[in-house]
Structure formats: structure tokens, C-alpha cells
Amino acid sequence: IIGTVRPAIAEKLGISPDTRVASGGGDNMMAAIGTGNIRPGITTMSLGTSGTLFTFAEQPVVADSAMIAGFCSSSNGWLPLICTMNVTSATTTVQSLLGMDIQAFNEALNSSKPGAGGLIMLPFFNGERVPQLPDARASLHNMDGSNLTPQNLSQAVVESATYGLRFGIDLFRQQGITTREIRLTGGGARSVKWRQIVADIMAAPVVCVTNQEAAALGAAIQAIWSDTLTTDSAPQAQLAALCDRFVQLDDSSRTPPDPANVAVYESLYQNYLALLTSEYPEVTV
User: Fold this and answer.
1) C-alpha distances in Å from residue 180, one per residue of 21, 169, 177
2) Beta-bridge mates of residue 54
3) What is the DSSP code string of 158-205?
4) CA atoms within 13 A on the CB side of 240
5) Which of 1, 16, 115, 180 has the greatest count of CB atoms below 10 A from its CB?
6) What share of the chain is helix, strand, coil (3-state, %, to 5)?
7) pLDDT (tens digit, 9 = 90+) per residue, 127-184?
8) CA distance from start to end of the chain
9) pLDDT digits (tens, 9 = 90+) for 10-28
10) Count of CB atoms within 10 A of residue 19's CB?
11) Of these residues, 18, 27, 101, 250, which one is catalytic?
């Protein structure tokens, strides 16, 4: 809390001059609170047009890599964050190419298997931020007469978009940041198959929150926290209690990694990295 609204402003707005003012935060900081990401070990991952992943840290994360943004959280901690450029923007491009609606795309995805029949995609339709390849272009590799099918192409774009997020998870791990649970948001999180692919590629359980407007929910929780906080209260315990009360996890979406698929995807991910570094030698893994 930094004070109260100035009387003249309160009068102009028609609100009480006792209204408290807090420093607030950004959309991702609010989404962290709105997904209960206020303690170490939880990573929030957005499968939106772009991909975002962030986690709570009790100490500043001074990363070796400039690809990790060292934000402060809005919960009295730090919020290392990574953003990729090609997630549902990439899958939508392929979906449009194939003339599919979302139901047909998901049916095609459900009909394919890990590895997409050998297809590997670099999904850089919009360039890329992590790794830092702003001028990169998308490409499809290892095609033959039998594996170039709508099903495999759908699988390849979902896998490659998820590999990009795994690249970010690995950057976190290199900084000693562990991920015990991934909380998914964004349009891609509605896909049962995609949730399983995320769990298998990241080797971590995933779950969705029931309120997809996580940033708005987090802002509301922070407002309650700010309004009720007193000098003699334990601020972190109070925030934790509010998150426990208002952040609900969708138990039906809980997806543990499949051990067999984890092993398969670890090998496939290494193939992806080999292709990535051969096409873009400037990338360090």
C-alpha cells in the first residue's frame, strides 16, 4: 500500500477518500496470483497465441541468459519469465492451411502418435524470441510420401510449439528453478491431447485452473489482500489463504506424464534441438 486516493481525485471519481492505493502490477504478475503461483515449484504456462511461462522465486533470479526476464512478482517475490512467439498462432496457421475447424484439427491430432511419423517442424512463423531468432522462418523437415498427412502435420506443429516451451523450461532448470507442477491457461489448454503432450515433454504433471481470466482474478485477489492487510498480519500467509479460497483447480484436467511417452519425447526433443542448432548455429543449448 502506498497511500490513499488524494481527496480532490476521490471527489472527482465519487469514491471514498479512504480508498487505498497499491502499486499493482502487470498482466503476468496478476496471472501468477490468479493461478496460485505464489510459492516455488509451480510454473504457470500459457498456451495462447504466444507462449508464456513464469514461476515464483523467493530470491532474485539473475539469469545467465538474457532470454529470462527478471521481473518482480506482485506477491513480495520475484517472477522469472520466458515468452515464445509461436504457440496457437502456429497451430492456427496449420489449421487454416488444412481447411480445418478446431474440432477437425483436434480429431486429426488425436489420430497421430508421438513423433508425427518422423515429421519435425521449426514453427517460427513469427520469428522467435526464445531462442533469440527474430528473423527465423518456419520449416518442415523429414517429409516423405507416407508421413505427410494432415494427422502428422497437426501433431508436428503442436509438438514443435511445445518444444519451444520446453526450451524455456530448460533455461529455468539451468538456473536451478524446479517445476513440480504446471498450471495451464490459454486456448490450447482446452485440448486433452495437448495437455498430455505438455506433461510428457516437460516430464511434469499439468492442471488447468477453472477461471481462465487468471489476470483479472489475480487483480481482484490482490485488491482484497491490499485492502485487508494490516501492519501486524503475516502478508504471505494472508495471500496464500486468499489464493486457496479463490483459485480453483480443474481436477478433471489433471494430467500426469506418461513414463513411456516421457522417454520417447526426450529422444524426440533432442532430435528437435539437433535440427534447431544445425539450422541456426548461433543457438546454444
Assistant:
1) 35, 12, 10
2) 44, 81
3) HHHHHHHHHHHHHHHHHTT---SEEEEESGGGG-HHHHHHHHHHHTS-
4) 9
5) 115
6) 45, 20, 40
7) 999 999 999 999 999 999 999 999 999 999 999 999 999 999 999 999 999 999 999 9
8) 42
9) 999 999 999 989 888 999 9
10) 12
11) 27
Q: What is the mean pLDDT of the chain?
A: 95
In sequence order, the 6+-apart residues with CB closer than 8 A to the CB of 86 are 50, 51, 123, 124, 125, 126, 128, 138, 161, 164
In contact, 116 and 156? CB cutoff 8 Å: yes
Distance CA 129, CA 49 (A): 13
Q: Which residues on neighbouring strands pair with residue 43, listed in sequence order?
A: 55, 182
Catalytic, 27? Answer yes
- Whole-angstrom distance, CA of residue 219 vs CA of residue 177: 25
DSSP single-letter state for residue 11: H
Asked if residue 211 lies in contact with residue 217, where contact means CB atoms within 8 angstroms, the answer is: yes
Amino acid at 6: R
Angle at 116 between CA 113 and CA 119, to 5 degrees: 170
Of 174, 160, 176, 182, the closest CA to residue 273 belongs to 160
Q: What is the pLDDT of residues 201-253, one digit of tens each?
A: 999 999 999 998 999 999 999 999 988 887 667 888 999 999 999 999 999 99
Please tell me the distance from the alpha carbon of residue 113 to that of residue 242, in angstroms, as a whole number: 41
Q: What whole-number distance in Å separates Cα of residue 117 and Cα of residue 61?
A: 39
Positive/negative CA dihedral, 140, 152, 255, 272: negative
- Give CA separation, 77 vs 35, 70, 259, in Å: 15, 11, 34
Q: How far is CA 95 from CA 113, 210, 215, 221, in A?
A: 18, 26, 28, 37
